[in-house]
């Protein structure tokens, strides 16, 4: 098992529309050989960095089984 951690930039304050981040799907069923993702979370790390993480569930979406964070 290994942790999945996606880091992306977020703009805060009053940016112009050309500086706004584009919409992005971070966790999608089937991505990285995971059947589904549950319990997503976002944490601000630095002023312009947000950490995104979720539980990746290998075989199914139940609460028990092969689950990675």
Can you describe what's shown?
The protein has 69 residues and is mostly beta strands. Helices cover 0% and strands 38% of the residues. It contains no helices and 4 strands. Strands 1, 2, 3 and 4 form a 4-stranded antiparallel β-sheet that branches. The protein is elongated.
Given as residue ranges, the uncertain stretches (5+ residues, pLDDT < 50) are 1-11
Largest sheet: 4 strands, antiparallel
How many helical elements?
A: 0
How much strand? 35-45%
- For the secondary structure, the number of strands is 4
Give the radius of gyration.
Answer: 14 Å
Label the structural class: mainly beta
Order of helices and strands: EEEE
Q: What does the average pLDDT come to?
A: 77
Spell out the blueprint of helices and strands:
Blueprint: E1 6-9, E2 36-46, E3 49-57, E4 67-68
Antiparallel strand pairs: 1-3, 2-3, 3-4
């Amino acid at each position: 098992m290994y942790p999945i951690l996606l880091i992306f930039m977020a703009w805060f304050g009053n940016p112009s529309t050309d500086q706004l981040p584009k919409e992005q799907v971070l966790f999608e069923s089937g991505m990285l050989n995971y059947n589904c993702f549950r319990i997503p979370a976002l944490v601000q790390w630095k002023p312009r960095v947000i950490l995104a993480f979720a539980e990746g569930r290998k075989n199914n979406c139940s609460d028990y089984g092969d689950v990675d964070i």
